[in-house]
Automatic annotation (TrEMBL), chains A, B:
<feature type="domain" description="HTH lacI-type">
    <location>
        <begin position="13"/>
        <end position="68"/>
    </location>
</feature>
<dbReference type="InterPro" id="IPR028082">
    <property type="entry name" value="Peripla_BP_I"/>
</dbReference>
<keyword id="KW-0238">DNA-binding</keyword>
<keyword id="KW-0805">Transcription regulation</keyword>
<dbReference type="InterPro" id="IPR010982">
    <property type="entry name" value="Lambda_DNA-bd_dom_sf"/>
</dbReference>
<dbReference type="Pfam" id="PF13377">
    <property type="entry name" value="Peripla_BP_3"/>
</dbReference>
<dbReference type="InterPro" id="IPR046335">
    <property type="entry name" value="LacI/GalR-like_sensor"/>
</dbReference>
<keyword id="KW-0804">Transcription</keyword>
<protein>
    <submittedName>
        <fullName>LacI family transcriptional regulator</fullName>
    </submittedName>
</protein>
<dbReference type="Pfam" id="PF00356">
    <property type="entry name" value="LacI"/>
</dbReference>
<dbReference type="InterPro" id="IPR000843">
    <property type="entry name" value="HTH_LacI"/>
</dbReference>
Amino acid sequence: MTTPVVPSHRSQVTRKDVARYAGVSTAVVSYVVNGGPKKVAPGTEAKVQDAIRILGYRPNAAARALKLGSSETIGLVIPDNTNPFFSLLAHAVEDAAAELGFALLLTNSDGNLAKERHNIRNLASRQVDGVVLASVLFEPDLAALEAADIPAVLLNHGSQAAGFNSVGVDLAAGARIAVDHLIGHGHTNIALAMGTNTAGDFDLREEGWLQALAAAGLPEGPIVRGPFSREGGYAVGRRLLAAADRPTAIFASSDMQAIGILRAIHEAGLSVPEDIALTSFDGSAEAEYSWPALTTVEQPVRVMAEAAVEALVGASRGQASEHRTFPTTLRIRHSCGCIAPA
Amino acid sequence: MTTPVVPSHRSQVTRKDVARYAGVSTAVVSYVVNGGPKKVAPGTEAKVQDAIRILGYRPNAAARALKLGSSETIGLVIPDNTNPFFSLLAHAVEDAAAELGFALLLTNSDGNLAKERHNIRNLASRQVDGVVLASVLFEPDLAALEAADIPAVLLNHGSQAAGFNSVGVDLAAGARIAVDHLIGHGHTNIALAMGTNTAGDFDLREEGWLQALAAAGLPEGPIVRGPFSREGGYAVGRRLLAAADRPTAIFASSDMQAIGILRAIHEAGLSVPEDIALTSFDGSAEAEYSWPALTTVEQPVRVMAEAAVEALVGASRGQASEHRTFPTTLRIRHSCGCIAPA
DNA sequence: CTGAAAGCGCTAACAC
DNA sequence: GTGTTAGCGCTTTCAG
């Protein structure tokens, strides 16, 4: 004999209870809860508000979502919210969404194609009103997005897919200023520590590095590729240090990689920027507290997040797809050699 | 004349369409989609599956949530997902939830009481099936949770509130091993860099530090308090260095603070661990890549996240509230003086 | 094994 | 200003 499980249902009190208690119709309760679309007499409104408070009524979001066809929720699909760049993005998107009354469904894809696809589908079936997608793929599963007819904005996606909104920075330009800065310090052998995507996307940071070198009449330095992570950077750093023609400066395509490179350099008993100068990309908080602090190309993450959310569910929603590019800024700290380390 | 907005409604195809297309009733479609509660003939099932595929049908989660009274979503309330400890927690909670078919609603409270309360309320009205709450408050808004009758688990909350599940580590024990380790290195003047909560909660890490010192017959070292952040740690570090009786070792209550302290020490031209040894708390990834790498008390975040989700929506849900404490492990790296920095 | 139908809580016509 | 009510898409009991 199994004991019947008491459902212990939450939010038992519905708008009907409130209506009864306040002696009005359910429509009126709706009107006061939503502040419209009809006006309610002040006295009635007060009665309803009292009933709501006394009964402890909270609207059922699922019912509302069903009726309205909108969950007032947006989805975020990122590779890994543990990466400082994405954690800041997540926070900023959450803030921007909350500002508009939207909640944030967070999903990590872990650089995994299947997982990303699953996350997109899952979000779609959850009636999210939009998704911001920082894909790990060259060809993200845009089809799923289109099929679901759900607004999306792509973040920093190289190939600006037609029909989709996107926000991003000019990766090539950002890389250029980082490399130019190194060139300004007199370096002529400047390596590139390039992050690898899951797919064979040609990253524009690589192009920027190339452009800067070419513009200065400098030879191409070594390129070493590895994951966009501290570990990846560490491995890349060791390889760079072991090279016959060791570079005197390195441009890393992400702060995380630079952190790893820093470790490799320290372990080799070398110092930054004296033996090897370093600049990187992202402008995450961690880059400010490394030793030495990293000179890095900062992406305006908060602004980008706001633009993304705005495009999705703000006033401008539903407009023709557009690509918004934001400017980067070089944060000059110690790793480039500009400022003595303290 | 305003152009009428075309709603462009997503997921137009409903279970009714599928039923019609497959020549069955809507109930049957439900049965195959959910794998129950009734059995369906193989032939029929195939027809339905085809119809689903061809029509591109995806179930409407809002309708399901309304019917079932469960959104298959859990909420996470943390101070700041930008903090490595919480970002790992968020990722782990997301993974554990996804494993069970639940999605994760992320909210940041930014150490703000009102925001935390708002987040809890908001999650409750969104019919989440549970919330894991890492509060910044001494007295989190448990009332809101109770009123909503929504399962919750508190994370690392000192005062184990009656009637609530909680998961956490033994903060005092963790602090003790970190301080004992410093004592083992021969230090006798060991400072405490203590993080501050919003409220006046007495943190057990402070107690652990005290206990270790007392057990070794050592005098209390200086205590300096500041926010649980890199900046907070930096300020704390500078104060500690300026002290008349400068400590030879510091125990920091979080990795972030230790990172800030490291910077303060570097800037003072001192080295770790030679001039000052350092241990900290959390075991975040960033601690592994600082220079020198931090010896830190690692919290088993993934395990804790799994336990929290399990308590909320797993098989054991609905049981009497319990408090689960997990063991910490000392990760010995370079900042304590054990291992030469490479 | 399959179908009909009630109803989850809410919104917003539409009627008064 | 307020009330009635249809119906959003789904699950599941109950009847065949």
